[in-house]
Amino acid sequence: MNDSDSTPRIGQIVLINKGRDAGQFAIIINKADEKFVLIADGDRRKFDRPKKKNIQHLTLYDYVSSEVRDSLAEAGRVTNGKLRWALTNFVEEILDVVEKGDGFNGEGRCN
After folding, report:
1. Total domain count for the chain?
2. Is the dihedral of CA 47, 53, 55, 59 positive or negative?
3. Is there a domain that residue 107 lies in?
4. What is the reported pLDDT for 67?
5. Of 75, 17, 6, 83, nearest to 50 (Cα)?
6. Pairing state between β 12-16 and 36-40
7. CB 64 within 8 A of CB 12
8. Contact 26, 90 (CB under 8 A)
9. Which phi and psi angles does 32 have, rounded to 5°?
10. What are 33-72's pLDDT values in tens digits?
11. DSSP line for 9-57
């Protein structure tokens, strides 16, 4: 599930490792350049004011929200509610994996 050496993709779930938002999940909504991406979570970081983040300060997960990716491809934007929904589904999936005893290969806390 954890794939930190890959290239960031639009709609991909990330865990923030550095900065004031460390330990929180977000979604990549755009690529600024080869070293930076724009992330949002729909709650603290809205789509209209995304955070520019160095990809070295993020843990990339091998999970891409198809709803967010498709919405960005079709309309060029995504609602904050859809971002929150995608993150909630991802976190619930992680909790299911941990409860089944498979373990979670992420570092940091889950807020």
Report:
1. 1
2. negative
3. no
4. 93
5. 83
6. unpaired
7. yes
8. no
9. -75, -45
10. 999 999 999 999 999 999 999 999 999 999 999 999 999 9
11. -TTEEEEE-SSTTTT-EEEEEEE-SSSEEEEE-SSSS-TTSPEEEEGGG
Instruction: For residue 5, give the amino acid letter.
Output: D
With tokens 């070295």, the residue in question is 56
Query: Could you tell me the pTM of the whole model?
Result: 0.82
* 1 within some domain: no
pLDDT of residue 99: 72
Say which residue the tokens 């639009």 belong to: 10
Amino acid at the residue 25: F
Residue 27 tokens, joined: 């979604």
Domain extent, residue 35, equals 12-99
> DSSP state, 108?
S
CATH code where residue 70 lies: 2.30.30.30
